Holliday junction branch migration complex subunit RuvA (Heyndrickxia acidicola), 200 residues
Amino acid sequence: MYEYIKGTIEYVCPEYIVVENNGIGYQVMAPNPFVFRQGKDFKVYTYQHVREDIMALYGFQSIEEKTLFKKLLNVSGIGPKGALAILAFGEPSQVIQAIENENEVFLTKFPGVGKKTARQMILDLKGKLQDVVPDYFPNLFNEEQFTKSDAASLAFEEAMLALKALGYSDKELKKISAGLQKEQLSTDEYIKAALKKLMR
């Protein structure tokens, strides 16, 4: 609903900040509230989270942080609190690199992230974050690696859609996707390799 709020930081505490805009104080949860200095004007990028029992605003210094937050929310087992913790304790570029490199040890260092959730983060987000925040980590991949990774990622997504159309469930596909994503294949090759695994 709100893309951002531009105003004065009236209050900062360990959990949230209060941004005043036109006489209204907005309580905004932030990964690290203390990056916002009290009494200063800021543009805070916001995300509104609505559930049956809560309606809250979450705020970020950049659109890239906000985008990564939203991506993390799509991972099973990660809620707003967990996503904030990840953004607070790790540089976004480090988080992205850990996902791309399947570094579960790094990911499990975050509060509330166990091996199962770390694996889920890798399954759900690997190969998808470059397209979301390309300017945020330009040095993580050289151009050749990015092109190969991008092509393989697209081929993998197309293969998964084709397999879903054949009637395979998300649960079945998740069981085989981890191993397949380590390969760089064409769409056709991904489908053939997946079917071999599914038929075992």
Q: What stands out?
A: The two ends are 47 Å apart (CA to CA). Confidence is low (pLDDT under 50) at residues 141-146. Residues 143-165 form the longest helix (23 residues).
